[in-house]
Amino acid sequence: MTEGKDEQAVERRKHKRFKAKSGTFKAANVEGEIIDISMGGFAFSYLDNGDWADETFDIGMLLGEKDLCIEDVPFKIISDCAINRGLSITRRCGVKFGKLTPKQLSQLEFYIWANTDVAEHEGEVTAD
Questions:
Q1: Three-state SS for 9?
Q2: What is the CA radius of gyration of the chain?
Q3: Is 61 within 8 Å of 44 (Cβ atoms)?
Q4: How far apart are CA 43 and CA 6, in angstroms?
Q5: Which distant-in-sequence residues (6+ apart) come within 8 Å of 97 by Cβ?
Q6: How confident is the model over 16-67, as pLDDT tens digits?
Q7: Which of 42, 93, 94, 123 is 20 to 30 A from 62, alpha carbon to alpha carbon?
Q8: Domains of the chain, first to last
């Protein structure tokens, strides 16, 4: 048997990703809906207005249910690609968290619990 096609793809992520039920990301000139999130990063979709540069370090904010807000979240863009073209362009952006404070890590654990289906996978969210 040959390697490659026949083998399952190896998961490279350190943290399990959870599909978001709700949540918004805001930074500089962009705002988008969170698609999925983990303790290591997240993906969000946004409408491309041409005002946001790729591959930059930046600070943003995560907003969730019941006025949940995590401010001054450091991140780095890992990927950014168009997922829909038409009258407006929708993009999907993959983000890696920078160095989070202990308070932000605790807030992130709660954010994931409150805004995803993590309850179905109880015990899987850890800051390790």
A1: coil
A2: 16
A3: no
A4: 28
A5: 39, 40, 41, 73, 74, 75, 108
A6: 889 999 999 998 888 999 999 999 999 999 998 776 665 455 899 999 987 8
A7: 123
A8: 22-118 (2.40.10.220)
